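Researcher: Here's the sequence for the chain we discussed earlier.
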Amino acid sequence: MRLEDKHVVITGGAGGLGSRIAALMRKKGARLSIVDRVPSLDFEAQLIQGDLSTSEGIAAIASALAQSEPDILVNLAGVQYFGPLEQQAPESVVLTYMINLVAPVLLSQAVLPGMRARGRGQIVNIGSIFGSINFAHFATYSSAKAGLRGFSEALRRELEGENIDVTYIAPRAVKTPLNNETVMRYAELTRMNMDDPDQVAKKIVRAIIASKKDVYLGFPESFFVRVNAVLPRLVDGSLAANDRIARNLFQHQL
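Model: Thanks. This is the structure I predict for it:
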């Protein structure tokens, strides 16, 4: 698939990874619309300013997307909480599921009628390796991304034969501002692999152009996705040492 003259909407497109994806797509001739809370963009694209953390904000953005009729919707916007579940504020729990799961579902719903009418389209959901290997202390983030993975698979089956592709892309940890100091310290202590955002952006754009179905980025993480699907209790043991490091990290913060 060529991106030239395609209208592409990217949620969270002003962020560290989103802006890189936008730049690559712009070079390939795509017409861009960026959904974000920022007041302005420092690159050429239409800004759809809004808030994906509330029902009202999602509804307003969904209405705008339904009218703009994108050829490709990239659900990238996300938030992450790292820490013990009992310490996560209730409003943070709601926000995590709204942005990471509810918003992609409702925005996909909004653009589908236009895609069906034109007989073509693509919905791209950016998930996470954490959505398949559900990490301790990332409980709400992991489960939201697991939901996004399941939604992508179900929607793909629902749209079979309609020339509307559904692509699910799951990067492993990426070096972006999404990771706070505690996450970076955890990554250092556990030697977690963290990828360069420029390389991840290139792989995401290539997967979109190729209309891939499911893409898992990074080895050995992509291998453990398959192991976890078949033998999750085996993966429990391999993650136990890292889980203890995380518990100690938060105990020292108390």
